[in-house]
Design goal:
By secondary structure, the chain is an alpha/beta fold. It contains eight helices and 19 strands. Bound molecules: S-adenosylmethionine.
């Protein structure tokens, strides 16, 4: 095997997520150009002291060592390079670079840990008392759950042995109403009613127990029981309000999302027929207020929410449970695409490149994937407008809003 070489390394090259783009550093480079950081000999001037005590151990927030303006500049630069955008609008900052994250999934570990997955490990949990990007109520929920677990000596999940009772604590918060839900995911019977009482005392709007038999490393419950309160939250975006179940997708940073929606509305102008693929609980379609709205989404709970949200906001629309790539009728004036991080199904991209409508509004949380898709979509569309919105401060991630228009014939 080829030995690792000691040489100059750059941020993008390494597994050392804790490097800054402007650092000059030395490290080892091994197979497939993968690198390990040894020392930063000329630090990026945009470096700051990371405020979180779990920084470097916890798998989240790996950009805390960069000033917020530098994070924004690096992210925007990356997106514009990936998408070869000619007009580079400055990125829109998150209204708050901390305390913004509305949903967290905390894991239980085999030695009584409750926290986030440890940086670079699939089977180790980094215990935390709180999280600087989540709301303060998470701290109270963490403390109550930890006390309850200890009192009953309940074993957390051992990912290697695939044994244990407690798997995750999912916390979901509404940024506008302050309501919050706690969902305990367990692999067997646990005294969950007592936990529900403790969390309700601390202000939980609803507490649910999800029972899971699958040993998969993701939340896939067989059944869900409401233990106290209600199983939905209310969120507001501008003049609209939305109900959302704990299973439905909702953007992690609603105040930043509102800025994106306002820009989308400005770019789209009045719309006659809108098709919203990957519609979630219906936010984008309902916000753009077309005369005729169709939403398509694969999670049934989200579609139930979308239908209720249309009624709640006195809007009309037809929302269907289906895979976006199986939806046959693409006839519309504006097609909205907002797929998960993995991007659109290649079948859908191929169809759009052959027979897509006049205008696409693409909302992407993975601009690298979008850049790959643009190689196919580019046969039919040109990128007319691009604007980045920072939904994920303290991390390298960014959201991009793109307006694509049909290329002129000839
Ligand atoms: C990034 S979210 C966007 C949701 C919504 N547009 C919003 O802004 O809140 C992606 C959504 O696509 C849904 N989804 C994932 N794969 C899908 C597929 N193949 N077909 C339809 N929906 C899918 C997810 O459940 C999720 O609600």
């Amino acid at each position: 095997m080829k030995p690792a070489r000691l040489c100059e390394i750059t941020c993008g090259q390494t597994d050392a997520r804790l490097m800054a783009p402007g650092d000059r550093a030395r490290g080892f480079v091994g197979k497939r150009g993968r690198g390990w950081l040894l020392e930063v000999h000329h630090p990026d001037p945009a470096r700051v002291e990371p405020p979180c005590p779990h920084y470097g151990h916890c798998g989240g927030c790996s950009w805390q060592h960069l000033s917020y303006p530098a994070q924004l500049a690096y992210k925007a630069e990356t997106v514009h390079r990936l998408l070869a955008a000619e007009s580079a609008l400055p990125p829109v900052a998150s209204p708050s670079p901390w305390l913004y994250r509305t949903k967290v999934e905390l894991s239980f570990g085999p030695c009584g840990e409750l926290g986030f997955m440890r940086q670079g490990r699939w089977n180790q949990v980094c215990p935390v008392d709180g999280c600087l990007i989540g709301p303060p109520c998470n701290q109270a929920a963490l403390q109550a759950t930890r006390e309850w677990q200890k009192r009953h000596a309940l074993p957390g999940w051992d990912a290697r042995a695939q044994t244990g009772l407690l798997r995750w604590l999912v916390l979901r918060h509404s940024s506008t109403t302050g309501q919050w839900l706690a969902v305990l995911v367990a692999q067997g019977e646990v005294p969950a009613a007592e936990l529900a009482g403790r969390l309700t005392e601390r202000g939980a709007t609803g507490v649910l127990l999800a029972r899971q038999s699958s040993t998969a490393g993701a939340v896939k419950p067989d059944s869900v029981e409401l233990l106290s309160g209600q199983d939905e939250l209310i969120e507001r975006l501008g003049e609209l309000s939305f109900e959302l179940s704990w299973r439905s997708f909702y953007q992690a940073n609603p105040p930043a999302y509102l800025r994106l929606l306002q820009t989308a509305r400005e770019w789209a102008g009045p719309v006659e027929r809108l098709l919203d693929l990957y519609c979630g609980i219906g936010t984008i379609g309902l916000f753009l207020e077309p005369n005729q709205l169709t939403g398509v989404e694969s999670v049934p709970e989200a579609i139930e929410n979308a239908r209720a949200n249309a009624l709640r906001n006195q809007r009309s629309g037809s929302f269907e449970v289906a895979a976006a790539e199986e939806w046959t009728d693409l006839d519309c004036d504006l097609l909205v695409l907002d797929p998960p991080r993995s991007g659109c199904h290649p079948k859908l991209i191929k169809r759009l490149a052959a027979e897509g409508p006049q205008t696409l509004l693409y909302v992407s949380c993975n601009p690298a994937r979008l850049a790959e898709e643009m190689r196919v979509l580019g046969q039919r569309y040109r990128l007319e407008r691009l604007q980045c919105f920072d939904f994920f401060p303290q991390t390298p991630h960014i959201e991009a809003l793109c307006l694509l228009r049909l290329k002129l014939a000839g």
